[in-house]
Structures are given as C-alpha cells and as structure tokens.
Design brief:
two-stranded antiparallel sheet
C-alpha cells in the first residue's frame, strides 16, 4: 500500500521522502528545511520533500517560502528540477490520509524557531518515522535519541522575541545521517 500511495504522489519506490506538516509560519523554520533540501538535492537526486501546509486556515502557502528563497543568498540552489521534487498539499486531510503521509516518509523534519509543543513530530515518531527536531525547544520534553536526531541551535533575541536559530549544517547532517541509515 505504501508504494501505491507514493505512486499517487509521483514518488518512486527508492526516493527518500522528507515530510513536514503544519502552518508555514516563520517560527516553523520551513526556510531552513527548504535550504537543507536544496543543498542535499545537489548530491542526491532521489530526494522528495512533502510540505502539508495549512493555507486554508492561515493563508500562508508553502510556495511563499520558495518565492522568498529566489531572492535570497540561496537562489543559486533553486531550479525547476529541484522545485518539481517538492510536493505541496494544501487541502485538509482525514486522519487516515495524514497517517499515510507519516508512513511513506523516510524522515519528518521540523527545524523550528519556536513551538508550543510540536505534536506532528511525535505523531510521525508514533508511525515509526525518524524525526529531526530543533534542540533546546519544546520537543526536548519528549525527544529521545531512539526517535531520530536533534538540530543544534542557539537562542537569539530579536525584536523583543526569544527564538531558536537552528544550525543549517546540523540540519543537513541529520537528514543525511537518516538517509544513509535508512535501513536501520
């Protein structure tokens, strides 16, 4: 059934699938995830990224970050070939459909800046999908190394806000580590 779900999304059986589900607000770190994906895509053609946004509720689309990236210092990493390997899902899904996404993913990445609890990585882990979350934040309450990996981060203070700044190299390394140890 996994392969059928993958085929329906245009994903090949041997593709490595990274998943993120949630609102695409700045605190979610989607910009970090996209940069990491594009960096890894330079070396590994069989990567796919699924972004399940909540644009119907928050009116913030995952594609907004792609537009911003085209104007950033990472614009050289963006090309049509890489963009076509990003699957954006904006519609509401039933719990069984969400579960299907968790089950076809090879890893769930949440390089957040700030979160209240961040339930989706825990849901992914309960499906047996390795997770990657920011170290030093709310997921420290439930994270255990048997669930996946943590992205190094530092605490920053900006405009009267306290946030985490995920380390991009750590995110890339952790995705790569899970990709290389997929069979484990």
């Amino acid at each position: 059934i996994k392969n059928k779900i993958k085929r329906n999304l245009g994903i090949k059986e041997d593709d490595f699938v990274i998943l993120n589900i949630g609102s695409m607000t700045e605190n979610k770190g989607i910009d970090y995830l996209l940069v990491a994906f594009f960096i890894l895509k330079e070396k590994y053609d069989n990567l796919k990224l699924i972004l399940k946004d909540q644009s119907n509720l928050f009116k913030i689309h995952a594609s907004t970050y792609l537009k911003k990236m085209k104007e950033s210092k990472y614009s050289n990493l963006i090309n049509d070939k890489n963009i076509k390997d990003i699957i954006v899902i904006s519609k509401n899904l039933r719990i069984s459909e969400l579960n299907n996404l968790y089950n076809i993913a090879d890893c769930y990445a949440s390089p957040y800046r700030a979160e209240g609890f961040n339930l989706t990585p825990l849901e992914a882990a309960s499906s047996g999908t390795p997770i990657i979350v920011t170290k030093g934040g709310s997921t420290d309450d439930y994270f255990d190394s048997c669930l996946g990996a943590q992205v190094e981060s530092k605490l920053i203070y900006n405009n009267n806000k306290t946030m985490l700044e995920p380390n991009l190299d750590s995110l890339v390394d952790n995705i790569l580590k899970i990709k290389m140890n997929k069979s484990e």
